[in-house]
Amino acid sequence: MTTKYVWTTRRAAVLASVILLGSTQAHAQDPIASFYRGRTVTIGVGFTPGGGYDLHARTLARYLGRHIPGNPNIVVKNVPGAAGLVLANALANTAPKDGTELATFDRAIPLEPLVNPERARFDALNLNWIGSTDNDVSTCFAWHSARVKTFGDLLKYELVAGGTGTGGNAHIYPKVLNAVLGTKFKLIPGYPGSTEALLAMERGETEAFCSMGFVTLEYTKPQWVRDKLVNVLVQLGITKNKDHLNVPLALDFAKTAEDRQAIEFVVSPNLFARPFTAPPDVPPERVKALRQAFNATLTDPDYLAEAAARKMQVILVKGEEIEDVLKRIYSMPRSVMDRVKEAIK
């Protein structure tokens, strides 16, 4: 072995050691990675297993950890109750505020402090919104045997609808449509999640459900869509779903500016259809890391492949965008909020 070769080999070894040491020191000095390494992050879901929120959470959980520095384990727990209000209250008041607890619940829950302040023990503007896995339009649909086949029929005939909790859209939408547009929903509240509410339709306990997007209906109950077992009556959003332009938009039936504002108030959360949030007072650098990890997960090829296989619609809504939507909602005239509040009593 020549002297030159020995010297070159030793230099390469030393250089590799320096690079490895520097990398190790940099990793050790990363406070985010140091905090999350070996820990478990829990995602609470405000519904029973099997529904759309649960599916989005469990799919996200399988890939989120690889994008958080330190690569923590991610687990999902179901905390049903009032469409997620129980979970939201707990998240804000008793959950650890260190970045290890996240939650997803009905998109209408952030409105609770405005319309049910006596029940909401949180400030939606103080929660740390991480992002949403979808931007959706909700629908109201009726079982094929119901007398109501169209939105026009709903203005003439009673339709029995199942609700998932007084803080959720399945409760709010029928109540507000009745008060603002004159529909004739008869609401049966108290189902713990969409899984149970849809089963009630099949059993004949109810005739309708009023809080599910087109895509969610297609992957949750594909046979219903295939066999035309339900009639979609109306869609609830700021704009129509581009693939269902034939289904009327609730906003188009508003007769006055006040009517339109009331409907906009309750449908605006569809802009963040599957919201994920952390408690207030989480250290800002960890909130930033969680948001970056969330954004990266929603472009992860493995995550997108599984979502496609499950026929999930995935549209990234960043945490900052959720904050902006909520700020606009909370700045609406008090008269609009009071009208909605009165409607959903």
Describe the structure.
The chain has 2 domains: 34-135 and 271-343, D-Maltodextrin-Binding Protein, domain 2, CATH 3.40.190; 138-269, Periplasmic binding protein-like II (D-Maltodextrin-Binding Protein, domain 2), CATH 3.40.190. Helix 3 packs antiparallel against helix 13 (301-309), helix 7 packs antiparallel against helix 11 and helix 11 (257-267) crosses helix 15 (334-343). It has 345 residues and is of the alpha/beta class. The longest helix has 27 residues, at 3-29. The model is unreliable at 1-9 and 12-27 (pLDDT under 50). The protein contains 15 helices and 11 strands. The strands form 3 sheets. A 5-stranded mixed sheet has the order 7-6-8-5-9, with helices on both faces. Strands 2-1-3 form a 3-stranded parallel sheet, sandwiched between helices. It is globular, with a radius of gyration of 24 Å.
Measured by DSSP, the beta-strand proportion falls in 15-25%
Gyration radius over CA: 24 Å
Helicity, as a percent range: 40-55%
CATH architecture of the largest domain: 3-Layer(aba) Sandwich
The helix/strand order is: HHEHEHEHEEHEHEHEHHEHEHHEHH
Here the CATH topology of the largest domain equals: D-Maltodextrin-Binding Protein, domain 2
* Low-confidence region ranges: 1-9, 12-27
C-alpha geometry = globular
Question: What's the name of the CATH homologous superfamily of the largest domain?
Answer: Bordetella uptake gene, domain 1
Oligomer: single chain
The CATH class of the largest domain is identified as Alpha Beta
Tally of individual helices: 15
The helix/strand class is: alpha/beta
Strand count, sense and barrel status of the largest sheet are: 5 strands, mixed
Average of the residue pLDDT scores: 90
Going across the biggest sheet, name each strand in turn: 7-6-8-5-9
**Domains counted in the coordinates: how many?**
2
How widely separated are the two ends? 88 Å
Counted beta strands? 11
